[in-house]
Specification:
- By secondary structure, the chain is an all-alpha fold.
- The radius of gyration is 17 Å and the shape is globular.
- The chain is built from seven helices and no strands.
- The chain has one domain.
């Protein structure tokens, strides 16, 4: 993961920033700058909502934030200093939220009549389903039972609702004039 963080994630982030700068036309829905900037903002806001939703469960003992320091360790290649491990892990987590927001906006704009709200919910739950099909739960020692499935699916639902509400609010009036209703 350290190789990924240094040689793929950072250059890809720089490339996205360059693309957004290159396409600095007005904030139109079919503009790559819009997908990148508004998708990243919406994804980060949705990731915050996702985490806020999970806080009561974490306080109750659910290890839902357990992966973040491990992400930091994998990116840093070390478990010390802890402040840096946690900072890198949480930064990586929010970069995932930004990436999911960018992917969602880039995909949804190809529809003739994008449905931001339901589309974002379906997107978030689809991402969760894909995550459950990977070694991710086993790698972090999560047992996949009803409680885990409820917590993780409902958190991704919150992510989708938040991302969808953000996108609908950002684009509903400008989009109605160009392609019908949202």
């Amino acid at each position: 993961m350290r190789f990924f963080g240094c040689w793929i994630l950072l250059p890809a982030t720089a490339l996205l920033a360059l693309i957004a700068w290159w396409h600095r036309r007005p904030n139109k829905l079919h503009n790559p700058r819009t997908w990148i900037v508004q998708g990243a903002v919406g994804g980060i806001i949705a990731a915050f909502a996702y985490d806020l939703y999970r806080v009561p469960f974490v306080i109750g003992g659910a290890p839902l934030f357990k992966p973040f320091p491990r992400f930091g360790e994998l990116l840093l290649g070390s478990s010390e200093p802890r402040w840096l491990v946690h900072s890198l892990g949480w930064t990586y987590h929010f970069s995932n939220g930004a990436a999911l927001g960018i992917m969602f906006l880039a995909m949804i704009t190809f529809l003739r009549r994008p449905t931001f709200f339901m589309g974002a919910i379906i997107w978030a739950l689809f991402v969760e389903l894909l995550l459950l099909l990977t070694p991710y739960p086993a790698f972090f020692g999560f047992s996949i039972g009803p409680k885990f499935l409820f917590l993780t699916a409902s958190a991704h639902l919150v992510f989708g609702v938040t991302l969808g509400a953000y996108c609908r609010r950002m684009f509903s009036s400008s989009h109605r004039t160009t392609a019908g209703t949202t």
